[in-house]
Amino acid sequence: MEPVKLISDGKLDMKKFDKHNLEMEQLCSALRKQGVFSLREVRDLFLEPGGDVTINKYVLYEPVKMEMSKQMQMIRNLLYC
């Protein structure tokens, strides 16, 4: 079996969702297990053959990496000397 793309570019495909007899609470539970608490965070979501989900989040919702935070702090320090 191939993975099924249930969310594409942030839009839930209700036909595929219904075809696989899913309930919204099942989807929300699977998202929470991966640290996602809003459908607005999800760009693409695949239902894997084993029932797991694979998520691609929008960059806006990706956590800021520490390396970037250090760079931002250096810029702030330069601007506010």
Please, could you describe this protein's structure?
- It comes from Psychrobacillus soli.
- It is a multi-pass membrane protein.
- It is found in: Cell membrane.
- Helix content is 37%, strand content 22%.
- It has 81 residues and is an alpha+beta fold.
- It has one domain: bsu07140 like domains (CRO Repressor, 2-Layer Sandwich), CATH 3.30.240.20.
- The protein has a 4-stranded antiparallel beta sheet.
- The chain starts with a strand and ends with a helix.
CATH-defined superfamily: bsu07140 like domains
How many separate domains?
Answer: 1
Largest sheet: 4 strands, antiparallel
| Biggest sheet strand line-up | 2-1-3-4
Q: Can you tell me the CATH topology?
A: CRO Repressor
Q: What's the gyration radius in Å?
A: 18 Å
SSE ordering:
EEHHEEH
CATH level-1 class: Alpha Beta
How far the N terminus sits from the C terminus, by CA atoms, comes to: 59 Å
Name the poorly predicted regions: none
Which structural class do the helices and strands define? alpha+beta
Helix share of residues? 25-40%
Strand content: 15-25%
Total E-strand runs: 4
Discrete helix count: 3
Membrane topology: Multi-pass membrane protein
Family: Belongs to the UPF0702 family.
GO cellular component, one term: plasma membrane
Pfam family, one: DUF421
